[in-house]
Design a protein that fits this description.
It is built from twelve helices and no strands. The chain has helices spanning 3-36, 44-57, 60-68, 82-114, 121-128, 131-158, 163-177, 181-201, 204-234, 238-264, 282-287, 290-308. Helix 4 packs across helix 10 and helix 6 packs antiparallel against helix 9. It is globular, with a radius of gyration of 20 Å. The two termini are 38 Å apart.
Length: 309
């Protein structure tokens, strides 16, 4: 195995360890809580908090030490204008909708073939959890952690192989790590775009904010919208009508901005990220190695289990 293939194998193995550690910590915490008070495990808010703790905080020290062993490069930092950030927001929301529709169509086709519904665990969690949990954990905490794990740590170490390698790898790892088919497609598209933005700007704060916006739209605003739709069906009122119309206008505006932005994105150039190492066969080097194969197989297994279970 050449040094580059070995490098990417280590990357895949590190993210596999991150995923396995999350499951181990969940098993440990669930067993401890079941002894203390089993009733806590029936509270979706507590379960959501436990899941976040196990996915991000508890495995972080070990993952950090593993990634620290790999050489990293600091990206050149560039500020962007408000106009550019609005454009990036539109692209993010557009990619989310494209990915969501793709996932919805595929899960519907699979549901028809299997003659059973495929549950979207994230949507169930959002609909069941308290809106403040959705705000704090899904809209704020998760974006910060995921951008550090899947953009900052990953791209700083792979950018030497070029922006294209880093963007696609970030998208692939981010999509698989979600572990369910419903999220795979929009996680892939948005993960790739967040990687693009991070490489363009060198500032993880931009991608954290973009990530937070899209999670806020999908977790908090979606609940407010659903509540307004229910209210207006029972008792029509101007406040709920305004919320519904405002939401539709906002989404349509961002979709138009996003579609325009996607037609312009090919003209972009990356600052301070010249390829230091050119791979003769990028796909074979990056993905056809033991660490990456085990990572992909592990999370495919998780997705299959989620679909069948």
């Amino acid at each position: 195995m050449n040094i580059h293939k070995k490098f990417f194998s280590k990357i895949g193995a590190n993210y596999l360890i991150l995923g396995i550690m999350a499951i181990i910590f969940q098993i440990i915490l669930v067993n401890i809580i079941s002894v203390i008070n089993p009733g806590y495990l029936h509270d979706i808010n507590i379960v959501t908090a436990i899941s976040s703790l196990c996915n991000y905080i508890l495995p972080f020290p070990i993952f950090y030490l593993l990634m620290k062993k790999l050489d990293s490069v600091e990206l050149e930092k560039t500020n962007i204008t408000v106009k550019k950030f609005i454009l990036y927001t539109g692209i993010t929301i557009t990619l989310m909708w494209i990915g969501n529709l793709t996932g919805l169509i595929i899960t519907m086709l699979l549901s028809g073939a299997m003659q059973s519904d495929i549950v979207n665990p994230v949507q169930e969690l959002i609909n069941s959890a308290d809106i403040w949990i959705n705000l704090l954990i899904i809209s704020i905490f998760a974006p910060i952690c995921e951008e550090i794990l899947f953009r900052k740590f990953l791209i700083d170490r792979t950018i030497k192989y070029g922006a294209k390698v880093s963007i696609i790898l970030s998208a692939v790892l981010f999509a698989f790590f979600h572990g369910n088919l419903n999220q795979f497609f929009y996680a892939f598209l948005m993960g790739g775009f967040f990687a693009y933005v991070y490489i363009r700007t060198g500032k993880i704060t931009y991608t954290i904010i973009l990530h937070a916006i899209v999670n806020f739209m999908g977790s908090v605003m979606s609940l407010i919208l659903a509540n307004s739709v229910t209210n207006i069906q029972i008792t029509p009122n101007p406040v709920d009508a305004l919320i519904i119309l405002g939401y539709i206008a906002l989404i349509l505006s961002f979709l138009l901005i996003g579609l325009y932005g996607l037609t312009r994105i090919k003209k972009a150039r990356f600052n301070g990220s010249k390829t230091q190492i050119s791979l003769k066969n990028p796909f074979k080097t990056v993905y056809l190695n033991l660490g990456m194969i085990l990572f992909i197989l592990f999370f495919i297994g998780e997705m299959v289990y989620q679909v069948l279970g």
